[in-house]
């Protein structure tokens, strides 16, 4: 019986497992995840602003193991030995015939343990819990969002909504190293977002970076200091340590450069945020839709390999993307069309509910959304 190891129980890893389960082949599938639950990342910022119940964003991986026919090993993979076809955790070493690396991405603290200790990450449900607890303590006056990508924008607008509901006047500042927020996105989207942030009183400090975090005091470039400041750290991500150490071709974030079949070594595939798929200057961004499609495709190519069929090329379909903003003035591009305002927010939520895991979670998210929409005023969507 062929043995498949999947590292990561996120969108990509579970999608690979689902495809393998559908094949009806006699397989032994081991799925590793360092956490016991799947986290629905796209709605994490909304757990702060819209107060979505975090429990609706989690799904117990063990509960999926019977349905998707895998054995769940709740351990962190520490090393891969590709030559020996082995994956090692602190407790044991496991061999495989086929491998899917789908361990996603994690916050990049750029090698600074101080930053890691003092700043707040926003990359899983546990991070959000820490942010919620810090906010409940109400000891900060300034909120520095380090990183002006879409996660930074989402975080800033959700903080704005949180304080608006509490009737608190706090300063929210996005600190961005490059000349503007939202990097390579179209100009109209950047202008729309900047205008929206301005309307909410959220400042943008471009060409700036966080230089030091000393307790509750934060210094940004040029020596400007903020006291009673909380830093939310979202300037970028990197892949897991075991990938950094693994001998394979990678991009600067440590994403594995995969070929047109999503493979990177014989019988080894990668999917989701860990996989860097594309051609020169046209690589796929980190997104749920690609993670699901890649996981599925990696599973398909394993099945085809076992059946001695030629592997299939991965042909991604890009549905588009939304920059969700908590006052409901979101924006994005869907099937190449511009979408703005409440429609963009609605599309984002509908997609999130559709892709969330389990009926209870879907119902919980839907109930919250309907409740919020019935309030019908800007910033009033409360989930
Ligand atoms: C705040 C936020 C908002 C986002 N919003 C959107 C959005 O609106 N739309 C969108 O398309 N995308 C969004 N994304 C990106 C999207 O969530 C990711 O692209 C997607 O989750 C990647 O799926 P994945 O399966 O590759 O990784 P993940 O979903 O991150 O899953 C990886 C899994 O691997 C496990 N793992 C990691 N290392 C190890 C290890 N060494 N051993 C064992 N297990 C390990 C982790 O515990 C995790 O469960 C957002 C991301 C964040 C953080």
Tell me about this structure.
The chain is of the alpha/beta class. The chain has 2 domains: 2-34 and 75-105 and 239-306, 3-Layer(bba) Sandwich (FAD/NAD(P)-binding domain); 113-236 and 320-375, FAD/NAD(P)-binding domain (3-Layer(bba) Sandwich). It is built from 11 helices and 27 strands. The protein has helices spanning 11-22, 44-49, 61-65, 113-118, 125-137, 150-166, 187-199, 241-245, 288-306, 341-355, 359-375, and strands at 2-7, 27-32, 37-39, 58-60, 71-73, 77-81, 86-89, 93-95, 98-101, 106-107, 142-146, 171-175, 203-205, 210-214, 217-220, 225-226, 229-233, 237-238, 256-257, 263-265, 268-270, 275-276, 278-279, 282-283, 320-323, 330-334, 337-340. It has a 6-stranded mixed beta sheet with strand order 5-2-1-9-21-20. A 4-stranded parallel beta sheet has the order 13-12-11-17, covered by helices on one side. The radius of gyration is 21 Å and the shape is globular. 45% of the residues are buried. Residues 378-383 have low confidence and may be disordered. Bound molecules: flavin-adenine dinucleotide. The site of flavin-adenine dinucleotide has 32 residues, from helix 1, helix 2 and helix 9.
Short description:
This protein has 383 residues and is an alpha/beta fold. Helix content is 33%, strand content 25%. The protein is globular and about 60 Å long.
